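Narrative of accomplishments. A recurring question from our advisory board has been how the design workflow behaves on a single, concrete structure rather than in aggregate. To address it, we present the structure tokens for one chain from the evaluation set, followed by the sequence designed for it. No filtering or post-editing was applied between the two.
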């Protein structure tokens, strides 16, 4: 009797289509998927061939294969350099402080913007916050130099002094991190606003009926909705923790602030392979911690 029931269930259950059949039925979707796959392969995987530049005395005129193989010479030179410890320390501190201070800002901005009830004013606020992201690094650094100029700079006019902040090693990290938050925080909150737009409005209505204040609605409705996306962004940020932007550091660096501005990216691009290895380890560590504490696993 049991065998008869099992056979009947198998007979009525839909047959699983083969992979070829599924592709044939949904070829338009697979064709669209092919575009990002090809772009990822061309711009992410093919350039991996150039990793060997870290192990060669690379000459552009000779190409990869004709350049002399030097093995670990560049790494030995880096790790034995007198400034090696300082560069690693500055790279870690700049990245860590940027993540510590910069990561919560887009979340807070998205929560604040989501509370605005006038659509036109909301769009204006979003546009003003997004705009700095589209300014080039060179222009941003030029603006920083103008604002911090000891002669006529806005900051010095406000404090009534003449301080050349870019020559102060103690001020470089603050300048670097604050300018990064100003430039990217508005752009970073887009994904959180998109997440909040998908929250069921009945949850807000139920919270109002229960007498919840605005702060309580944010903490009990908005924050839980943002948590998975925040964890994903944290994991992605940890995966690039050692990648301090070369252009910005180079444009703001002076001989007097090298104590805090000398980073690995300025020293050598070949040692970028070392950064990548560290980032990969950090990526798995943060994902493991996040999956154990929040039951969210992305890797």
């Amino acid at each position: 009797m049991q065998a008869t029931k099992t056979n009947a269930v198998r007979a009525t259950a839909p047959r699983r289509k083969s992979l070829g059949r599924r592709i044939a039925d949904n070829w338009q979707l697979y064709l669209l998927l092919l575009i990002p796959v090809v772009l990822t392969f061309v711009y992410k995987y093919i350039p991996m061939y150039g990793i060997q530049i870290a192990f060669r005395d690379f000459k552009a005129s000779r190409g990869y294969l004709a350049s002399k193989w030097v093995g670990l010479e560049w790494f030995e030179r880096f790790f034995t350099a007198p400034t090696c410890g300082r560069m690693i320390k500055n790279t870690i501190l700049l990245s860590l402080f940027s993540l510590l201070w910069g990561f919560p800002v887009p979340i807070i901005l998205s929560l604040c913007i989501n509370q605005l009830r006038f659509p036109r004013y909301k769009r204006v606020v979003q546009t003003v916050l997004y705009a700095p992201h589209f300014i080039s690094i060179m222009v941003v650094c030029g603006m920083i130099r103008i604002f911090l100029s000891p002669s006529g700079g806005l900051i010095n006019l406000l404090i009534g002094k003449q301080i050349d902040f870019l020559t102060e090693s103690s001020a470089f990290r603050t300048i670097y991190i604050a300018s990064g938050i100003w430039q990217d925080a508005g752009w970073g909150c887009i994904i959180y606003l998109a997440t909040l737009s998908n929250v069921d409005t009945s949850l807000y209505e139920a919270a109002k009926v229960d007498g919840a204040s605005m702060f309580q609605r944010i903490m009990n409705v908005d924050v839980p909705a943002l948590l998975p996306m925040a964890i994903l962004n944290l994991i992605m940020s940890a995966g690039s923790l050692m990648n301090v932007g070369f252009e910005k550091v180079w444009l703001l660096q002076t001989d007097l602030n090298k104590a805090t501005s000398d980073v690995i990216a300025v020293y050598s691009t070949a040692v970028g392979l070392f950064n990548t290895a560290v980032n990969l380890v950090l990526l798995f560590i943060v994902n493991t911690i996040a999956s154990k504490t929040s039951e969210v696993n992305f890797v």
